[in-house]
Design a protein that fits this description.
about 190 residues; mainly alpha; two-stranded antiparallel sheet
């Protein structure tokens, strides 16, 4: 997978992109007292999460930069986050083969055998913009980490073993939709 990825035979942290100095308070919805604040700061400063630039904020009724921490993630958005984390150089250098906006993400998902619902074929492209569940996120994350496709139970156990979920003894809620703050809270601990 290249120098900035996990070695599937010895799962370790991928080499981290350098820390930036972005002031996350520039995002109108950033709240330093929220449980996700440090994780967002970490992810934004590594280019893993970009936020939404100049979008309408219904709270202030102005156009502002937002993080949208409680927004559901689509499969394609989640792939963008994970690929920026695991293989940022390869993601940046891969050329799209079609005009589909998600082409590169799904080229790489196919290359690494990630268990995604969408694909670079017209009949499956609509699935890229569907919300992703926590269970599917766990499968894709663990599969990327190990370099092979894993089942949902194995993926959930991976999250528990590495302390990436607070659902140690309780139910994981695999069918609950993944949101941005939950996704961002996992990556700094990998």
């Amino acid at each position: 997978m290249g120098k900035s990825t996990t070695d599937p035979s010895n799962p370790t942290n991928p080499s981290k992109p350098p820390v930036g100095s972005i002031d996350v308070s520039k995002f109108a919805d950033y709240r330093a007292d929220q449980y996700w604040a440090e994780d967002f700061q970490w992810a934004v400063n590594r280019g893993i999460i970009n936020g939404y630039q100049n979008v309408y904020n219904p709270v202030t009724k102005k156009y502002e930069d937002l993080l949208k921490p409680n927004t559901n993630l689509t499969e394609n958005q989640m792939l963008s986050v994970l690929l920026r984390y695991f293989i940022p150089d390869e993601l940046a250098s891969t050329k799209p083969k079609t005009s589909w906006v998600a082409d590169v993400n799904y080229q790489l998902a196919s290359k690494y055998g990630l268990p995604v619902n969408s694909a670079n074929i017209a009949s499956k492209q609509a699935l890229a913009i569907k919300d992703i569940t926590r269970g599917n996120f766990a499968r894709i994350l663990a599969s990327m980490h190990y370099g092979r496709t894993v089942s949902q139970p194995v993926a959930i156990q991976f999250l528990r073993d590495y302390g990436l979920t607070t659902a140690k003894t309780q139910r994981f809620h695999a069918n609950v939709i993944l949101n941005t703050s939950t996704c961002s809270s996992v990556l700094p601990s990998l």
